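ping. complex inputs:
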Amino acid sequence: MALLEVQNITKRFGGLVAVHEFNLTMDQGQIVALIGPNGAGKTTAFNVIAGYYKADGGKVLLNSREITNLRPDQICGLGLARTFQVVRPFAGISVLDNVMVGAYAHTSDVKIARAKAEEVLELLGLQRMTNQLAKGLPIAIRKRLEIARAVATDPQIMLLDEAMAGLRPMEADEVIGMVRKLSDKGIAILLVEHVMKVVMSLADRIIVLHHGEMIAEGEPADVVKNLQVIEAYLGEANNVTS
Amino acid sequence: MTTQVSAKTSPNSLRNLLHILIGDWDRTQLSISFLLVALMAISPLFISSPYYMGIIILACLYAVIGISWNIVAGFTGQLLIAHIIFLAFGGYTTIVLLNTFRIMPWVGIPLGGVVAALAGWVIALITLRYGLKMDYFALFTIALLVALRTLFLKWDFVGGAVGMYLRLAEPSVPKMIFATKPPYLYIAISLLVFGILVQYQVYRSKMGKYLIAIREDEAAAAALGVNTSKYKTIAVMIGAALAGMSGGFYVMYVTFIDPTGVFNLGVNVEIIMAGPIIGGLGSLLGPILGALVNKPIAELVRGSLAESRSGISLIVYGLFLITSIMVMPKGLAGLCHSLYLRLYRPNKNIE
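pong. complex structure:
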């Protein structure tokens, strides 16, 4: 039985169909990448799955339980966590407190939440930042903090929205390593990513969106050979990332 | 760290005591708060003038009111401007219960808190239902204040425009009527201690983290499992309950309440917003420090400039508020925090 099943979700903004009958199935520990040119509807699909937008059609099932149009916090409580494309740290509080907010998802006990947060900070190599305010952190650390907070909620599946955008290659490699670690722990990961190097090295499967439609799906090696995909997207993207 | 010879030697127990009192900034704020409370509690030993005693009593009460607003505006970041509404609900409840139903204020004041909390619940329900946030939420509360003033002006059951007066009787403990100031002071102090403990408990618990997360970024908080509507509602209700109880005591102390005096934005700024802002919004210590500075200065300005042209005292007080916000954006508590970090850097091993 699949962990996450997305069945024919559609989202319209006025006359614009941002996502049209999008389908996706994911199992435990799988890494799936969602790619496509700007405006293809990737983030919109994320927002529908995570409960930030109401779907205009279709269903989302998590562990066979329907989660379509539940509130984001309810969806998080059921085991689906997301990060934001533009990172949104709680700027005025410390790194530890940021992660503790996530850690409180399944407990009310301060000590348990603190221990959980410290464990996650260590997993993501942030233990030296524990007491720093989130405000002044460099972007690479803020991106990691964004992931750490989500991991602290103990998700079965994570939606990472461009977690590596804006990072230097070395920093991106570190994040790739972290994503692998998370996947090894059994967390399924859905990535939106523009950096093809990341996509090719991480993803078990790639889904290509274009104008809200799914135009290809499959193994990375097959998808990059797909003519339609090259036309829509990869021709340009290869130049950008090389 | 130095080697520990024995856990029971006196330097160690001193260190443990220090750790409990000032081990981190939150505890330090709590300790300073209680130090200030203790100073207020012994103030009748030095101060006999009822005028000065009165200022201390009101400063103490404004500290509780400041705490109540701090939980909503400081922790949760909700611009509940017209917070004085809750003070009014608590005050009216207490005096109506006493005058009309002969229910003693010792019961009436807590019930005033309950009524105010219910009012807070209704306000939260309406604003959440219609998605009013930030400035729209602020405007809604101001509009509500104006509407309620009109309603209370016309409502004869609560005295209409005249308001309600305590039927003054012989001093009596059950009726909370005293001939001297100190008993009022100790009731105000009890309220303040309650407020300090509630605020600390909220701040250090899961709820406090959630409220601050909502203030910092509501969408991100929701992504981490925070039911933002629920926690905003609870924050408003706690703040309203504390303000309502303060309102109940306020009526017993000044012996009357009327719509124009209490549904009043100017008064709202002076007794609710000025204290926490001068003291440091969002900190534990801010509302208390703020009230202790704000109230005496407001009185001083009013007293010394009362003879001159009318309005001058308000201009001077306004200038004082503006200057203090510009000079200390994080308030007095922010200054204290910098000082604390400079004097006492908590050793990581201790933490």
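The longest helix of chain A spans residues 169-184.
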